[in-house]
Structure formats: structure tokens, C-alpha cells
Amino acid sequence: xxxxxxxxxxxxxxxxxxxxxxxxxxxxxxxxxxxxxxxxxxxxxxxxxxxxxxxxxxxxxxxxxxxxxxxxxxxxxxxxxxxxxxxxxxxxxxxxxxxxxxxxxxxxxxxxxxxxxxxxxxxxxxxxxxxxxxxxxxxxxxxxxxxxxxxxxxxxxxxxxxxxxxxxxxxxxxxxxxxxxxxxxxxxxxxxxxxxxxxxxxxxxxxxxxxxxxxxxxxxxxxxxxxxxxxxxxxxxxxxxxxxxxxxxxxxxxxxxxxxxxxxxxxxxxxxxxxxxxxxxxxxxxxxxxxxxxxxxxxxxxxxxxxxxxxxxxxxxxxxxxxxxxxxxxxxxxxxxxxxxxxxxxxxxxxxxxxxxxxxxxxxxxxxxxxxxxxxxxxxxxxxxxxxxxxxxxxxxxxxxxxxxxxxxxxxxxxxxxxxxxxxxxxxxxxxxxxxxxxxxxxxxxxxxxxxxxxxxxxxxxxxxxxxxxxxxxxxxxxxxxxxxxxxxxxxxxxxxxxxxxxxxxxxx
Amino acid sequence: xxxxxxxxxxxxxxxxxxxxxxxxxxxxxxxxxxxxxxxxxxxxxxxxxxxxxxxxxxxxxxxxxxxxxxxxxxxxxxxxxxxxxxxxxxxxxxxxxxxxxxxxxxxxxxxxxxxxxxxxxxxxxxxxxxxxxxxxxxxxxxxxxxxxxxxxxxxxxxxxxxxxxxxxxxxxxxxxxxxxxxxxx
Lengths: 509, 185
Description:
The complex is a heterodimer.
Chain A: H1 7-10, H2 14-36, H3 45-73, E1 80-82, E2 87-89, H4 91-118, H5 124-141, H6 145-163, H7 170-201, H8 206-214, H9 221-237, H10 246-253, H11 256-283, H12 295-319, H13 324-345, H14 354-377, H15 393-396, H16 398-412, H17 418-432, H18 436-462, H19 475-493, H20 496-508
Antiparallel strand pairs in A: 1-2
Helix pairs in contact in A: 2-3, 2-5, 3-4, 3-5, 4-5, 4-11, 4-14, 4-19, 4-20, 5-6, 5-11, 6-7, 6-11, 7-9, 7-10, 8-11, 10-11, 10-13, 11-13, 11-14, 12-13, 12-18, 13-14, 13-17, 13-18, 14-16, 14-17, 14-19, 14-20, 16-18, 16-19, 17-18, 17-19
Chain B: H1 3-24, H2 28-48, H3 52-77, H4 91-113, H5 125-130, H6 134-142, H7 147-168, H8 180-183
């Protein structure tokens, strides 16, 4: 054996294997789900199809459950760094993995009846969702930019296909092609940035990059250019202005359950990875406290402008939207802006970056529920998705409308919902960090946002129904809505547990 | 200017020229063939960097296997010159061109004024040669230090295959009710 092969890189200890188990479970589950797509048994193709889809969704749910249980099992164990410093298994990873797994599981549950209705139900859907989930988990735990890139691609590739799942629909095709081409272009930009960083520092490891950044106060243009390109890649994935153009079309054209997956899982993963890289480059991977002279200082002004414009444009354009999917897409852009505010002020405030993590979780919980309801109420081909179609919903579906109202209040940031807790922490951190103007303008933007969220509620409760919405009861989707509502209220009334976990995770990065 | 420099500039200029042909050419077959030439020029630059193995792989896999597939697809889809015509020029294209030039200037400036630092592990050509040459060092690194991204890439390929089958399979069972008419609503 040559001196290059280090034995410690080839052997996994039992503890290390335990840390890896959630990833292995999801990878194995995704492949098993793929196998579920070839089940045969009877001569009736329709019965075969049912059997396959049921098997796929069951394997998928079982995988996610097993992953969650295992994540809970290793919860709070001391972190480890695996594979030659490329993968972190720490508290932050655990928390984010739990979020991704739960989001994927709930999306799969709410997809079942939706895909049946749309007649685009294929077993591959669940497999791609699981692969994408694996990509998300790896993104949040990557300590090396090359792993981050491969994970990013794994996450995106599955979703490109899922966006185009309604193959006979032009809008779905358009959304898939747009997302794929723009996403690939941005992947290339990201990769180019990584290459420049490697050229400038000789390493792709985040901690080593941070050391190079610190030891080079004069500023190496090559390093700066690489960092900018990598940042552009992240800003695209979180759909912040000016890289938001793709998002409304993709969100509207994609099947609603896929939109749900994108708005919760993908966005959370992009932010989770961004946060890890951001904090890592600021502080050299130790603790959550910001330091002078890191990436924070150089990127501050850029991110400040991006955050403000993102909040403003997202909210203002959302005002004019009639289609509820499109409205939620623009609102999602605005939420990215709020989270960026947390990212900017995280280094200098008491709660640190925990406001970002808390808001991400809040965002995932409320969007999961809202999109599950939209998917449930839509008619075949995603028709009846306009706000006007929700007129009088309060009389016909009182429980569903109540849940929708809770999600809308939460997105608007009204107490006692988790959206309020998240916004409060973000903006109070901004004030603590001395970003008074950003906080003031952010709250103003958020007030604009309240208008279109409340409009949905007004339509549901104060308008006469124009047409009857016929939605059959679907137990799985109802369960998702129930879980999301409970989460929104539970974390809204008692956010301290979540804040504590978020704080611990942020300190752990 | 040494001989190596001259070769570098020649191959790089050729690569840039052929890349422009890929983008600007109206006929997809010409674009594909220009891309083959780009790969060859890049491979030549890899040789100049003493990365012979990568150069070989570049030619075999990219210029060979992948481009053959590209050309097959172009011929099977019967993509003619018209389909690649983007129509008349629009004003924003001029703005885009200006921005691209500005961006290029920024890149050029950064690369000119930037400093590179050597690889952390210190793989100089001499060290690589002493460790058994390019191929051996590459494969050993791939299966030790870089085992995680390597294995993840294989999973990524699996996702790609599963995804392309899901989207391209001619008839998915259960898609019986799909017809273009219904879908357009």
C-alpha cells in the first residue's frame, strides 16, 4: 500500500457508522423505492399500478420514519467529522436532518391523493423525493465544497424531474426546462467559484478556506471572485432578488405537491448549507460568534441590499397575484429576505444565528400545511387555484379553512403562531446587531405582506361562495395539515424549546 | 516565452474560438463538432500541465463517448437549422452583451491581480512521479481522501438515470388518461 492511502480514511468505527446511519437509511430507502416501481403480480395493469404506488409510498414513509428515529437516537451525541474532514455529524446536522426528513415524509403523505387526482402517480416520484432528501441532508453536513456541490446536484436533479412530472402539461414542461437550464447554469457558476477558491487557497475545505481568508487581510481578488460566485450560487437557490426570476414560473408550473417540496425542503437545505459555509468562513468553524475581518465584513453591504430588495420586491409583487401558488411563490421570495436579515445580523446579536434556524423551521412548518391545502383543494390540472376560488370556503370546509387561516396568520407574522416567533427573533436580532434601518424596513415590508395573506382569509370567511369546491376527504393529506397546524401553534405558543435547540445548533456549527 | 507557453496560448485560443462556434453556430451538428474540438484543445492543455491521464480520459469519455451520444440525439431528433434560430435581436441582448464584457473585464482583472497558492497536500509533478505517476496517485486519492464525493457521484448518476427514465419513458402505466388536450387546460 502506498503512503497516500491513509487507513483512517478507509475504516469506519462503530460510532462513525452510527453517525452515518441516517444517510445510509435514506440512500437504501430511495433505492428500495425504485425497486417498488417494478412490482408485478396480477394481469391487471391498473391493479399493478396501485400496488406499486402503495408499496413505494409505504417504503418511502418507512424510510423517513426510520431515518427520523435514528436521528433521534444519535441526538445530542458528541459530533464527529467523517471522511477526511468532509462531512460533519453534529447537533446542527441532526436538527436540519430531522427537518428535511420530516418535510419529505409529510410531502410524500400529502402527495398521494394529489398525484392520484392528477393521474401522474408513479413510484419513481417517491424515490426521487428520497434521493433529493439525501442531497439536502448532505448539503447541511458538508464541510467540503466538493461534497457540497455533489449534494446540491443530487438534491436538484431529483427535483428537476419532479417539476416536470406532469408530462402532458405544457406549463409543467416549461417549468421543468426553465428550472433545469437556469439551475445548471448556476451550478456551473457555483463550481467555477469553487475552482477559483481552490486555485487561490489550495483547498476546498471550509475551515482551511477560512484560515486562508484570515491570513490574507490585503484581499486576494481571486479569492474574492470565487467567494462571490459561490454566494451567487446560494442566492439563486434561495431565490433572492435578483436571482428570483425563475421561481414564480417554476412554482406555478410544477405539480403543487412538488412546489410544496421545493418551498420547504429545497429552500431549507439551501439556507442550511449557506449558513454553514457563511459561519464557517466567518469563524473558522468554531462557534457561532462573528468575528471582524471575515467574510461577514466583506459581504455585509451586498447582503444588506439583497435582503432589503428581496423583502420589498417579493412582497410588492405578491400583492398583485391572483393565483395562490404564484402568490405563495412571491411570498417565499420575501421570506428569503427575512432569513437573510437574520444571516446578516446573526454574528452580532445575543441569539446569534439561531434566528435563521428558527425562521427556517417556522417557514417549513407553515408552508407545508398551506401547500398541502392548496394541493388538496385544486382540481385536476391545478385549476381552481385562484384566491377567488377560495371564496366562502369557511362555510364549506370549516376545519380546512381554519388551518389555512392559521398558516396565513403565521406567514403574516401574527401571534401566537410560529411565524411571529420567527419574525420577532429575526428583527430583534437585527436591532441588537445595530441594523436598525434594516429592521425598520423589514417590518414595513412585512406589513405589506400582511395584506395579501389576510386577503385569503377575507375571501374564505367574508365572501359568498361563487362555485362549490368539491374536495374529497383524504386522510393522509388531512394528517399533514393537522401536523402542520399543530406545529404552527405549538411552536408559536411555546417557542422556547425550538429556540433553545436552534441556539445549540447554531453554536455547534 | 518558452515552447510550452506558445502551445498553451495556441490551444487556449483555439478552445475559445471553438467554444464561440458552439454557441453561435446555427447548425446543431456543427456546434456538436466544435464542442469535440474544444474538448481536444482542453485535453492538450491538460497534457501541458502534465496531467496525461486526465487528458486521455477527456478525449476518450468526453470527445469520444459523450459527444457521439450528443450527435446521435441531434440526428434522431432531426433538429434542423431553423429550430436553433432564436429570431431577431432584441434590445436586452445589447445590455446583456455590455454586462458580459464588464464581467469578463472583472474576471480578467481578478485573475491577473490574484495570487494562487499551491495545493495543500503539495502534489508537485516530482512528488506525483515519485508516488507512482498520475494514474496511481489519482486512483489512490479517489478511494481514500475523496471517497465520499466519489461514492456520492455514483449515487448522483443513479438519480440521473432514474429521473431521465421517469421523464422519458414512452408510456408510463397509469398515464392512460394523459392526452395533450386534457393537460393543456
